[in-house]
Amino acid sequence: MVCVLRSSLFSTVGCGLLAVVVAAGAMTLTLRSADWNLTALVRVDSATRLGADARVVEPGFRTVHPGAYDGQFYWGIAVDPFAHGQVGKALDKPSYRYGHPLYGWLSWLWSAGQARAAAVALAALGLFCLFAAAATASWLGRRHGRSGWEGLFVALNPGLVSAAAHDLAEPLGAALLLGAYAAYLDRRRRLAWVFFALLPLAKEPLLLVVAAVVVWELCQRHLVGAAVFATAAVPALAWWLYARVHFGGWFTSGGTALAEPFSGWAQTLFGSTARRGLAPDLAVAVLAALILLFAIAGVSALIRRGPVELSYLSLAAVAICLAPNATAAFSTALRNTAFLLVLVPFVLATRPFRPSPAYRARGAPTSRLQGTPPDRVSSTPPD
Fold first, then answer.
1. Rounded Cα gap, residues 118 and 278, in angstroms
2. Which of 30, 44, 159, 24 is nearest to 91 (CA)?
3. Does residue 319 lie within any of the structural domains?
4. How many CB atoms sit inside 10 A of residue 300's CB?
């Protein structure tokens, strides 16, 4: 028993630490040329009003031009979480940026509302979320009789590593996604509800995960469970309504990353940009291999149709419809498929992941343990 516990702890913590080491190594590529100033990870555009505000907040703030990236918008939310100040108004397409504010909000809390500490909080939170996601994936695998290698799909996930190195929200989304399913499959429904409620505030497409769980509950004729998990969408809907009133537009008004099915991927893999060499051959090969892996997992998900599989299929549908602007850049394509790669080992597992049968209503017998074959469970009714 002690050896089993040690092995479980080693794989769980080991995957988490590996994720942190890999992401920290990616961060050093930027930091070593910026005197190890963590504001360089945010990549705020010096030619914008946001760049001017950043230098007001911290005179030594490392801005860039060109080469700005989306981490600057999370930094803006961390400094001005509810868009009542100058920084919030300086964001590009604020109705869209504040549609997924959770990463900025949590960084605001981690920095205790100190604007100068926002960049540090963003980097620290990204590493923490990556550790939590990898450790949770490993724990979830071992909890259901696997070896725990599922955590490697987080630790070595190029989309998540790149996101953490640029202060983006994908590691937070992955941690919430895995935490939600770890709680849901273990029948800790209150905790699962909290995670599911936070998912759309991290990244809007993750609302589809909540919908997938509701559909699964309906398929199992758990009407109360379906109604309860449907309410997990209420916090995000309430915030989006507030943002609509405050900014005068929905979060969808910031442009779209969706188009006709496969159009973005076809242009990336076979279009003129690839022929001109803007997309290196290695990058195209990696993307092609990932697409093949996702397709195999998709077939498995269609056959099994469990709660995790339904979530995978819903997110895969979004990935199929990504526009060229969401797939042309190698790093962006990897980020937009990072959640799919996180779910792949659970979808392709030998035995499908299902909610633990140990859960029971009041007064129900407790003889059935997780993993016990039905023909070996006692049929003796309770006293």
1. 34
2. 44
3. no
4. 16
How confident is the model over 188-194, as a mean pLDDT? 96
Q: Which two tokens stand for residue 141?
A: 């695998």
Give the helix, strand, coil percentages of the chain, each rounded to 5. Answer: 70, 0, 30
- Using only the alpha carbons of the chain, give its radius of gyration: 22
Confirm whether 180 is domain-assigned.
Answer: yes
How many whole angstroms separate alpha carbon 16 and alpha carbon 152? Answer: 9
Measured CA to CA, the distance from residue 190 to residue 224 in angstroms comes to 13
pLDDT at 209 over 90: yes
Q: Using alpha carbons, list the distances in angstroms from residue 42 to 47, 71, 122, 333.
A: 15, 5, 8, 20
Residue 107 lies in a domain: yes
Structure tokens of 66?
């060109």
Compute φ and ψ for 64, nearest 5 degrees: -135, 155
Long-range pairs of 53-59 with CB within 8 A, sequence gap ≥ 24: 53/86, 53/87, 53/90, 57/87, 57/115, 57/116, 58/115, 58/116
Q: Which residues span the domain enclosing 173?
A: 2-204
One-character DSSP codes across 63-112: -BSS---THHHHHHHHHSTTS-SHHHHHSSSHHHHTTS-HHHHHHHHHTT
* pLDDT for res 250: 86
The per-residue pLDDT for range 242-298, each reduced to its tens digit, is 999 998 888 887 667 788 899 889 888 887 554 444 446 788 888 899 999 999 999
* Alpha carbon distance 115, 76 (integer Å): 9
Q: Is the pLDDT of residue 108 over 90?
A: yes
Place of tokens 């990616």: 26
Is residue 359 scored above 80 in pLDDT? Answer: no
Tell me if 342 sits within 8 A of 150, measured CB to CB. Answer: no
pLDDT tens, residue by residue, 320-338? 999 988 888 888 999 999 9
pLDDT tens figures, 120-174? 999 999 999 999 999 999 999 998 888 888 999 999 999 999 999 999 999 999 9
Domain membership flag for residue 376? no
CB 364 within 8 A of CB 375: no
Number of domains composing the chain: 1
